[in-house]
Design a protein that fits this description.
This protein is of the alpha/beta class. The protein has a single domain, classed as 3-Layer(aba) Sandwich (Rossmann fold), CATH 3.40.50. The protein contains twelve helices and eight strands. Strands 1-2-4-3-5-6-7-8 form an eight-stranded mixed β-sheet, sandwiched between helices. Helix 6 packs antiparallel against helix 7.
Length: 279
């Protein structure tokens, strides 16, 4: 459980402009591969700050860790270390390998957290679109972190944002044939689709963290997939909430996170506070 002083800070600190210490392009996999690097945004002082791991979207074939808008400033102002990661993309890597990259990045952050004022045992994993699927996968399929000799116990909360592939076979059945074929190409055969679906791995006793699943209110696919994941989590006794963001689209629900007076941002920080309290 976090200290009472940190919880008071989370509740009381407004979303004001902050000047985080920025460390860019840090390699996390002992390679020179640009896609296996991360950026750290850290408070200027203090220790044992909770850490946010952010996973960008882009259809598993595009996107960049630099596309974080106001999120780093918002989280650092609330006393977090914010880490935005790159990962290898299609067609050079499979989605499973992307999950392995995310786990490697978390391992690196765990090992180097103290250098940036972070608490290696208090992380939250978040991501948008394709990054939402990867965030949910890492937080339900414990094999990814186990391969890095880590446990899901260090993850205190998961926030997927407007993902549509928490149950990949269901999504493929839902969409028109052209899009179904695209998903099949990206996710592989039925066995692979199931293995890369977070809902497949939801079970009791695995230390799966609480979930807040943000989605566009008017989007039937991301809304339906969010409810599907919430149902699976609830059936396993895991706290989970899907929040339909009114007036947003797939782009703005992500771009507006961290901005003042943004309702999903308010819901997000309320969830984070509860998660750090262990509620």
């Amino acid at each position: 459980m976090r200290s009472s002083s940190l919880l008071v800070l989370l509740l009381a600190t407004p979303l004001l402009a902050a000047e985080p210490q920025i460390h860019r392009d840090l390699p996390y996999a002992n390679t020179k591969e640009e896609r296996q690097t991360l950026d750290v945004y850290a408070p200027t002082g203090g220790k044992q700050h909770p850490i946010v791991i952010w996973i960008h979207g882009g259809g598993w074939q595009a996107g960049n860790k630099s596309e974080v808008q106001k999120k780093p400033e918002a989280f650092v102002a609330k006393g977090f270390v914010f880490v935005s990661i790159n990962y290898r993309l299609l067609p050079k890597a499979t989605i499973k390998q992307m999950g392995q990259d995310v786990a490697r990045a978390i391992r690196w952050v765990h090992d180097h957290a103290s250098a940036y004022g972070g608490d290696p045992h208090t992380m939250l994993v978040m991501g948008h679109s394709a990054g939402a699927q990867l965030a949910a996968l890492i937080c339900t399929d414990e094999r990814y972190l186990k391969a890095e000799k880590l446990s899901l116990t260090i993850i205190k909360g998961c926030v997927p944002v407007d993902g549509d592939t928490y149950d990949v076979p269901l999504q493929i059945k839902t969409v028109e044939q052209r899009r179904a074929d695209i998903y099949k190409k990206k996710f592989g055969d039925l066995e692979s689709q199931k293995d890369l679906s977070p809902v497949t791995h939801v079970a009791r006793g695995k230390h799966i963290p609480p979930f807040l699943i943000l989605h566009v209110a008017e989007h039937p696919e991301t809304g339906g997939q969010s409810q599907r994941l919430v149902k699976a989590l609830h059936e396993a006794g895991i706290p989970a909430q899907a929040y339909p963001a009114a007036g947003k689209n797939h782009t703005t629900i992500n771009a507006d996170l961290g901005t003042e007076n943004d309702k999903p941002t308010q819901v997000l920080f309320a969830f984070v506070t509860r998660a750090l309290q262990g509620k």
